[in-house]
Predict the structure of Putative nucleotidyltransferase.
Amino acid sequence: MLSDDRPTAVADRLARVGGVVGVALGGSRARGVARPDSDVDLGLYYRGPLDVPGLRKLAAELATDRDGGATPELTEPGGWGRWVDGGGWLTIDGVPVDWLYRDLDRVAAACAAARRGALDFGFQVGHPFGFAEVAYAGELALGRVLADPDGELGRLRAGLDPYPDALAAAFADRLDEARFLLGAVTKSARRGDLVFVAGTLFRAVGLAAHAVAAAQHRWMITEKGLVDEVGALPGTPAGFAGRARAVLSGLTDAPDVLGAAVEHAVALVAEADDFCRRRRSEQP
């Protein structure tokens, strides 16, 4: 079992590896919503050449791999794709611990994008909704800094408090995309194109959930658990999560079933839009 102070001790060791500028605890453990089986996510914020051999040496000293092997595998930067970057899945003291590379200059650019309301989603394996660049900012805003010798992570975090109004507006504006998609998918619903319609509904529900969270100035990092997490926020309309899940429940290729699901999604997006407008009107 990983003791409470063990992540900080590991972070201190990581911060001494060449290229590592700071380390932060992320994921569900940083947000206080972890399950007993949740991984420990450590973000390794680096600049310039990252001493991957040094990281591998440290990993061999501290950890095993997930399969119980003696030598954990760590990628080079970019080994997991453009957005997730790279790292390794380790086991330390019997607990799954992920070392996740984060290019600090890219994170700083994402923080600046969040402050000015620049929002875009990129393709990344493992993220069927798409990876939002501003997720890097959200990771830092929600994370717990464990090692930050020069204070760079702390300064970036400070620039994200309070949550940027421009970013909340950008998520609300993306509801236009949901409305367009739902308007365009009706023909496919009449044709019984289950897979295409289901993908469109997933996208529309995700956009609605993101908008509702952003209207409350809450960071959402990933689509995993998104609807339930947004539904649990104190300001979210009662029953929102249930209505969001109902859009995708019981889908078949029957045109009437798909048509009804599209109508439910249209109503959900309208609800999200109304919520965003009301929240903006309540701001001082």
Summary: The longest strand covers residues 95-103.
